[in-house]
Design goal:
The chain is built from 12 helices and 18 strands. It has helices spanning about 10-25, 35-40, 45-55, 65-75, 90-95, 105-120, 140-150, 175-195, 205-210, 235-245, 355-360, 365-370, and strands at about 5-10, 30-35, 60, 80, 100-105, 125-130, 155-165, 200-205, 220-225, 255-260, 265, 285-290, 305-310, 315-320, 325-330, 340-350, 350-355, 380. The longest helix is centred in the middle third of the chain and has 20 residues, at about 175-195. It is elongated. Bound molecules: pyridoxal-5'-phosphate. Pyridoxal-5'-phosphate binds next to helix 9 and strand 9.
Length: about 375
């Protein structure tokens, strides 16, 4: 294999997380597995079959490029839903392949009808409505214009869902904003009902909303971060565990990131290590060089800050993280040699580098850290 580090994805961890999600989500509610951002860095091609094996039959992505990858990977013919960007030609592809997609403005709505007519095939759409996030979503005046067209063009449009997205359900500080969004959504729902436009499904919840507000589950929940073994924020994790009176998280991290020691070297007291003067050896030291740097997703902010595991010990990154390499202090670790395993994220012996400790040190949220892991690091499935 031609690579400098590898990512492992744990099948048993996913099984545990999916079971946890199924247990708390209301009976009969579809779980849509959100696999945008390369399945939050886990790799769409590796992750999707594992999720299917756990009984998932609905996948959500942001855009057509991700939808294609899911489409080419799936085996059980699950539903694929695009929540974000689609060009007109991608809309044509989506309708052709029966991929469902969000409609959040009149322009896309009209394009969908036009293309559906041309193909002689119904567009399967989810109308996303604005409830207070102020990102994408149909405004009241647009809904008013859209409803009569939706009724008239029924044979070209399958009104699959009515949906919205909450603006920060992972933070208690947003409680009133979320509550307001819920009530706006209920009003819009009534408006549609009053005009006899009834979707097949209602869905609003992401991981945080699903965990904290069971009334948001409706017909489907769109679950991203939880399936990968992380709470949406520290706050939601603490709140959940306190409420359940549990100490141990029911979630398990799927991902581990590993590499091998590339070289070792002795450095004399008084010498600087690496570029510039950010690390001065104040005693005789021994360092290991690791073939992972910022071009591989190991952020430069972790210069003189990061930790990795070698020989079951937690060791400090010394000096600046380079484009392709970094140095680690092995002065007090016996017998480290070229080819020894280095854990960047994950477990070795009794020690663990968690994604969140890594994230906190580098000032990134789990979401960002995971999705920034380069696509070209090979992903392997492990038990
Ligand atoms: C990303 C996303 C989700 C999933 O969010 P998580 O916090 O990872 O569960 C759900 N819905 C929409 C519209 C999203 O963009």
């Amino acid at each position: 294999m031609f690579h400098t580090s590898t990512i492992e994805i744990s099948k048993s961890a996913l099984q545990q997380n999916i079971k946890f999600i199924k247990d708390f989500v209301k009976e009969g509610t579809t779980i849509s597995s959100v696999v945008k951002g390369n399945a939050y860095g886990h790799g769409i091609e590796q992750y999707v079959p594992l999720a299917e094996a756990c009984g998932i039959n609905h996948f959500s992505v942001f855009s057509a490029d991700e939808a294609v990858r899911v489409f080419n990977t799936v085996t059980n013919g699950p539903t694929i839903m695009v929540m974000g960007q689609l060009s007109p030609e991608e809309i044509e592809w989506a309708i052709e392949k029966e991929i469902e997609f969000y409609v959040f403005d009149l322009h896309r709505f009209k394009t969908a009808i036009k293309v559906a007519k041309k193909l002689g095939k119904r567009a399967i759409i989810h109308l996303e409505v604005e409830t207070g996030m102020n990102r994408t979503g149909l405004e009241a005046n647009e809904i008013k214009k859209l409803l009569p067209i939706l009724k008239k063009e029924g044979e070209h449009i399958r009104f699959r869902g009515l949906c919205t997205h909450f603006a920060g359900a992972e933070s208690i500080a947003n409680y009133y904003r979320i509550k307001k969004q819920k009530s706006v959504f209920e009003k819009i729902k009534d408006y549609f009902l009053k005009h006899d436009c009834i979707p097949e499904q209602y869905h609003t919840a992401c991981s945080a909303a699903a965990l904290r507000y069971p009334s948001t589950h409706m017909d489907m929940v769109r679950i991203g971060i939880l399936q990968y073994g992380f709470f949406p924020s520290t706050e939601t994790g603490v709140e959940f565990l306190t409420r359940k009176r549990e100490n141990d998280s029911p979630l398990k991290r799927l991902i581990s990131w590993k590499t091998l020691v590339m070289d070792t070297k002795n450095v004399k007291a008084g010498q600087f290590i690496g570029y510039g003067t950010s690390y001065l050896a104040n005693q005789d030291m021994k360092i290991a060089i690791i073939p992972v740097g910022y071009s591989h997703g190991y952020t430069r902010n972790l210069s003189n800050q990061g930790r990795v595991l070698i020989n079951g010990k937690r060791l400090a990154v010394v000096g600046m993280v380079n484009m392709n390499m970094m140095a680690v202090d092995i002065t007090y670790t016996e017998n480290v040699k070229q080819g020894d395993e280095v854990v960047i994220i994950g477990k070795q012996g009794d020690m663990e580098i968690s994604v969140s400790s890594f994230g906190t040190a580098s000032d990134q949220v789990n979401y960002e850290l995971l999705t920034r892991l380069p696509h070209n690091i090979p992903r392997f499935i492990v038990e």
